[in-house]
Amino acid sequence: MFANVGWGEMLVLVVLGLVILGPERLPGAIRWTGGALRQARDYVTNATDQLRDEIGPEFEDLRAPLSELQKLRGMTPRAALTRHLLDGDDSLFSAVGALAAEPRPMPPAPVALPEPGVPAPFDTDAT
Asked: Where this protein primarily resides, as one coarse class (predicted)?
């Protein structure tokens, strides 16, 4: 649940807790939050165990597609292309990266704009 929360974010939360709750109530709030998370985790574990008991061996058949979805969930577009379309060969991306790093020719010089107050040329055949 909190896999993406690093030490920096935790420090910000503690500082915010100190500012909002104060040093007297912060330890109790942390204890309460920890207990609530532990209780929620226990509920989920008990529900999973109950489903496993009721469904039986078919429970693992249900978990296999879910675990495959979990693997795909964290995959970047580049990794998905490499894995499924290119069979793991990412040399195409390194070749494209090398082409992008090559110097490019200068674009042509910009066209001069007419002076202010002079009407722009008008082509009656083009409209």
From this structure: membrane
Match 């577009």 to its residue by tokens. 77
Q: What separation, in Å, do the N-terminal and C-terminal C-alpha atoms of the chain show?
A: 62
Confidence (pLDDT) at 115: 81
Q: Is the pTM above the cut of 0.85?
A: no
Boundaries of domain holding 42: 7-56
Domain assignment present for 105 = no
Average pLDDT over residues 71-84: 71
| Tokens found for residue 116 | 């202010």
- Model pLDDT, residue 1: 52
Residue 29's contacts (CB-CB under 8 Å, 6 or more residues apart) are 17, 21
Q: Are residues 52 and 72 in the same domain?
A: no
Q: How many CB atoms lie within 10 A of CB 70?
A: 10
Q: Assess contact for 82 and 90: CB atoms under 8 A.
A: yes
Q: Under 8 Å CB-to-CB from 114, ≥6 apart: which residues? A: 120, 121
| Tokens, residue 15 | 């500082």
